[in-house]
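Postdoc handover notes: sequence design on the structure in folder B. Input tokens:
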């Protein structure tokens, strides 16, 4: 069990991931630089970006300046980026990884993810499967080259992962999925647990759309914590790694302050049982 912000989740290749990360979606330019620099100063050691976010340059600059100031060693940090959908396929994946690394200004990444599976809305079932397998083959070769410490997927459902396992030489280490009260994707969660895949929660706060929910508010009031803290603690008690995003320093700090309370089994069950509050993307039907 995770007991402090310094604790880690351990991947099946023994690489350790800081137990809470910092998300950077919708942060661009100066705001991205300032927010990541503040997050690092606030104690975050895992930074989540993606080529889609168009902030890899600023994320990399904030990381490099933090290291240059002697505030941490590179090995203390855990930097994730993701392959965008237009770059799927073996050769394009290798090129996209190289570009991300160069834009970030880093020698290596800690985690590289396939952002979304190719799906049958846009491809035939055979094409989608081959594309996902070829993209994974490229991630495996990047991993074997030593330029990334762990590889994984994002938004992959059970059937997408089963396609990967058919041809994989290296099993996925992480699946980053949407996960928050009201949307826990129990089938993929239990599949990943069985397969030794670490689940990461994107939108662990449901982008605040779940903040008015009466059950979550009651639990927060009972513990004297914020609704955001309940959502993040809920992830950790499911052994799911949350990557909340905030541009505000006070919220960044509060989102790391998750270790002074424990949700009871009844509270976890109540949160597990919440109905979907809407706004979820289905990886099988999204058109991006
Ligand atoms: N793999 C994928 O497909 C995928 C998809 C989406 C996101 N992600 C990753 O997951 C990260 C997190 O997800 P997300 O950004 O979509 O949503 P989120 O973290 O669930 O929510 C972010 C929103 O919550 C607000 N917020 C943060 N902390 C708060 C607090 N303590 N109290 C009140 N409001 C708070 C933020 O506002 P302020 O900034 O104004 O504080 C922002 O509007 C992303 O940044 C990205 O790195 C991955």
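Designed sequence:
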């Amino acid at each position: 069990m995770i007991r402090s912000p310094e604790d880690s989740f351990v991947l099946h290749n023994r690489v350790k991931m800081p137990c809470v990360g910092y998300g950077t979606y919708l942060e661009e330019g100066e705001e991205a630089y300032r927010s990541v620099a503040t997050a690092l100063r606030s104690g975050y050691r895992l930074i989540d970006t993606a080529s889609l976010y168009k902030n890899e340059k600023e994320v990399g600059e904030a990381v490099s300046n933090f290291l240059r100031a002697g505030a941490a060693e590179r090995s203390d940090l855990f930097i994730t980026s993701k392959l965008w959908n237009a770059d799927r396929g073996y050769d394009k994946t290798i090129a996209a990884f190289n570009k991300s690394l160069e834009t970030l200004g880093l020698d290596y990444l800690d985690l590289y993810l396939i952002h979304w599976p190719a799906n049958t809305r846009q491809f035939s079932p055979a094409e989608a499967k081959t594309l996902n397998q070829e993209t994974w083959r490229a991630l495996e070769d990047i991993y074997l080259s030593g330029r990334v410490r762990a590889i994984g997927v994002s938004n992959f459902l059970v059937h997408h992962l089963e396609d990967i396992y058919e041809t994989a030489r290296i099993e996925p280490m992480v699946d980053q999925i949407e996960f928050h009260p009201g949307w826990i994707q129990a089938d993929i969660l239990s599949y990943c647990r069985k397969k030794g895949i670490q689940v990461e929660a994107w939108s662990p706060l449901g982008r605040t759309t779940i903040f008015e929910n009466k059950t979550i508010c009651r639990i927060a009031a009972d513990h004297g914590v914020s609704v955001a803290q309940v959502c993040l603690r809920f992830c950790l008690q499911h052994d799911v790694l949350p990557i909340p995003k905030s541009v505000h320093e006070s919220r960044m700090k509060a989102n790391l302050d998750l270790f002074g309370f424990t949700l009871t089994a009844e509270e976890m069950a109540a949160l597990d049982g919440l109905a979907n509050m809407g706004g979820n993307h289905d990886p099988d039907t999204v058109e991006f």
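Context for whoever picks this up: The chain has a mean pLDDT of 97. Don't rerun without checking with the PI first.
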